[in-house]
């Protein structure tokens, strides 16, 4: 099933010459007659599912078709007498849905459940009957696709149906595969409905089903759904795009000639490859037109190169970039860094001597299968588990090894959104985020988050409701605010307060991107209206305790009678490598050699003076201590410093911010070698999580 040359047929006036080439279409009238006549004999496969059997055997030559025959017999007999709004027998719908999945390569269990997917919802067939006849897996999938009763849920029926399907998809992704194929056939035949109903269904398809198809990697369904929605919701743009494609059909297409040149280059290099031209679907052409303005002949398609092994992909890329002029900005390597929806390919673009720019996709045949069919191409996710390892009385939730991180997050936050309206609006917002990043936790684990996620999102993803007490984070070893956005590959360490009553600030909602974080924060703020922390702490003067100040400590400058001062920005101590600079008034300021001020002094042309340390071991240093706010903290820190025999020259305590307190101490040490022990002693004070030199 091709994912590229899609053309919508939702509109009655869609031109037949622009329909997708190569797709076997069901003859609904012929199948309707076959369905009304019923099955022929118990030994023969019914003629009505001949298309399905042929497509299924193409992917699974050894498949047992007897299960499909039994499923068809039950579906046909239970739906007999029911008609679609188009006037066709209802059985033509499950047949069409099953054919779509068979063309994608779905295995027999999926096709069996697809034939039966409307029986429990629309006929007298029960789940118990399905389970008795076809087993637990088919029953589970059929139940997952079955809508909830509108009489029980009223206006909330649609959100609750999607919630039910998503929970079932968390256990078996085949549930959503059938739902996507079901929606695709319904969209193909939507022209018989009222325009307002067409628009409503198309909007739900755009907001929910198409993002789900993208995330599950089922590009073949996603692209056709996009075109069908495009025709209904944007008829003028659709007509304009259709006119562009029709005009291009009458012109000379440069892509076949470019494809032949690519074949010649690869033949000469000894690389076995299949090179084909893939027409763009309608929405893709529309996007390219918006991006580039006037379209050229090579913009209406792309060149696809299929090879056998991963290494061949890079060999093809090397030949293309050697024999053609590469467009560097168009290169993307989705093999080394696959997309979160399983997609792998190399993307590049090359310029020809005639001035055309052709986009080229390079992938293996297995990558192509997964790119087209996504999770459908993975087959039965449970076949790798030996039956002996599965206890018959095990009631634990089945775990699908293909479950992606975004789905796990979605299943987690939906439990905290009992209100259908909240669930529905948040689901759409979640699915609108089409890119994902991976960040590393301090303990070595990973977190999958949407692009643009902040430390707040990471906190709730890792700690759940315990993240209410998060007061800060370290990203790549550096302390940062909770509002900081994370990038792919960052390492994040989250700092939690020891006070169990801690709660989020009101402005956290402005920086939270994930539904789990937003729902948890909103719930806490509603439950604690009188204890909401202000968004900004009023500025207050820091508390300072100042003792006798010294000058240059035991640093000596090679400049007679010069006053020596140790720089407060880097507070050098023996045996630090240092540099001195003459400043206003003739004094010499001493910096650590790697201090940023050293480069600035040299850039300003300041005179450098050699500096050395006296033989005496005493020194002065400034330390920064980061801690959680609590009573008696200053006293405990001062006591720890005194126990090390160190004199406090000055101390500054900044006002608490989100329960974090910063202390700055300038200390006189009797011996510089005691600095590491002093810093350890300060870190051991309860509530202190970091001590470092200024």
Protein model, in words:
With 694 residues, the protein is of the alpha+beta class. 41% of the residues lie in helices and 17% in strands. The strands form five sheets. Strands 1, 2, 3, 4, 5 and 6 form a six-stranded mixed beta sheet that branches. A five-stranded mixed beta sheet has the order 8-7-11-9-10, covered by helices on one side. Strands 12-20-21-19-22 form a five-stranded antiparallel beta sheet, covered by helices on one side.
Write a brief caption for the model.
It contains 26 helices and 22 strands.
For this entry, give a set of tags.
6-stranded mixed β-sheet, disordered N terminus, single chain, 5-stranded mixed β-sheet, 694 residues, alpha+beta
Shape: elongated
Q: Whole-number radius of gyration?
A: 34 Å
Structural class: alpha+beta
Task: Tell me the fraction of residues in β-strands, as a range.
Answer: 15-25%
Biggest sheet character: 6 strands, mixed
């Amino acid at each position: 099933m091709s994912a590229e040359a899609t053309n919508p047929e939702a509109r009655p006036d869609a031109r037949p010459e622009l329909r997708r080439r190569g797709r076997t279409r069901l003859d609904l009238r012929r199948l309707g007659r076959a369905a009304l006549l019923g099955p022929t004999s118990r030994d023969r496969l019914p003629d009505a599912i001949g298309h399905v059997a042929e497509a299924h055997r193409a992917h699974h030559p050894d498949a047992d078709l007897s299960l499909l025959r039994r499923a068809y017999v039950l579906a046909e007999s239970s739906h007999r007498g029911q008609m679609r709004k188009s006037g066709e027998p209802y059985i033509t719908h499950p047949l069409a849905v099953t054919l779509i999945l068979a063309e994608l390569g779905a295995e027999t269990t999926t096709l069996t459940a697809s034939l039966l997917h409307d029986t429990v919802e629309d006929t007298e067939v029960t789940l118990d009957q399905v389970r008795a006849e076809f087993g637990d897996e088919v029953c589970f999938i059929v139940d997952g696709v079955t809508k909830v009763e509108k009489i029980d849920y009223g206006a909330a029926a649609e959100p609750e149906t999607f919630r039910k399907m998503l929970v079932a998809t968390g256990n078996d992704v085949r549930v959503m595969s059938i739902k996507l194929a079901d929606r695709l056939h319904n969209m193909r035949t939507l022209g018989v409905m009222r325009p307002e109903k067409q628009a409503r269904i198309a909007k739900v398809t755009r907001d929910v089903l198409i993002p789900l198809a993208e995330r599950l990697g089922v590009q073949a369904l996603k692209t056709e759904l996009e075109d069908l929605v495009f025709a209904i919701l944007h008829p003028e743009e659709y007509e304009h795009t259709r006119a562009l494609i029709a005009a291009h059909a009458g012109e000379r297409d440069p892509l076949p000639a470019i494809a032949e040149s690519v074949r010649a280059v690869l033949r000469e290099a000894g690389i076995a490859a299949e090179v084909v031209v893939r027409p763009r679907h309608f929405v893709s052409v529309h996007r390219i037109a918006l991006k580039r303005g006037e379209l050229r002949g090579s913009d209406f398609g792309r060149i696809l190169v299929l090879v056998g092994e991963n290494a061949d992909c890079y060999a093809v890329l090397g030949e293309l970039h050697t024999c053609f002029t590469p467009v560097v900005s168009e290169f993307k390597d989705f093999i080394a860094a696959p997309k979160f929806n399983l997609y792998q390919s190399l993307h590049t673009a090359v310029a020809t001597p005639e001035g055309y720019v052709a986009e080229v996709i390079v992938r293996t045949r297995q990558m192509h299968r997964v790119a087209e069919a996504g999770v459908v191409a993975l087959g039965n996710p449970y076949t790798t588990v030996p039956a002996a390892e599965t206890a018959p009385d095990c009631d634990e939730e089945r775990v699908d090894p293909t479950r992606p991180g975004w789905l796990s997050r979605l299943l987690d936050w939906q439990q905290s959104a009992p209100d259908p309206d909240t669930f529905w609006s948040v689901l759409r917002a979640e699915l609108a985020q089409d890119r994902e990043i991976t960040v590393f936790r301090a303990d070595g684990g990973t977190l999958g988050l949407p692009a643009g996620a902040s430390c707040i999102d990471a906190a709730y993803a890792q700690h759940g409701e315990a993240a209410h007490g998060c007061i800060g984070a370290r990203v790549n070893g550096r302390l940062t605010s909770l509002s900081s956005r994370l990038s792919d590959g960052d390492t994040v360490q989250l700092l939690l307060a020891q006070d169990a009553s801690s709660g989020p600030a009101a402005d956290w909602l402005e920086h939270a991107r994930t539904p789990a974080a937003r729902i948890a924060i909103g719930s806490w703020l509603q439950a604690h209206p009188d204890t909401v922390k202000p968004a900004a702490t009023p500025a207050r003067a820091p508390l300072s305790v100042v003792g006798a100040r010294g000058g240059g400590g035991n640093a000596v400058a090679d400049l007679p009678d010069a006053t020596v001062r140790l720089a407060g920005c880097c507070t050098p101590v023996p045996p630090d490598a240092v540099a001195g600079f003459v400043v206003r008034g003739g004094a010499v300021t001493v910096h650590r050699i790697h201090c940023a001020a050293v480069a600035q002094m040299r850039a300003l042309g300041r005179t450098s003076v050699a500096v050395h340390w006296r033989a005496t071991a005493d020194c002065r240093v400034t330390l920064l201590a980061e801690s959680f706010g609590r009573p008696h903290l200053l006293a405990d820190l001062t006591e720890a410093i005194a126990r090390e025999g160190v004199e406090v020259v000055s101390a500054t305590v900044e006002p608490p911010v989100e329960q974090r307190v910063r202390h700055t101490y300038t200390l006189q040490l009797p011996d510089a070698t005691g600095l590491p022990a002093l810093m350890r002693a300060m870190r051991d004070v309860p509530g202190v999580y970091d001590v470092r030199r200024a």
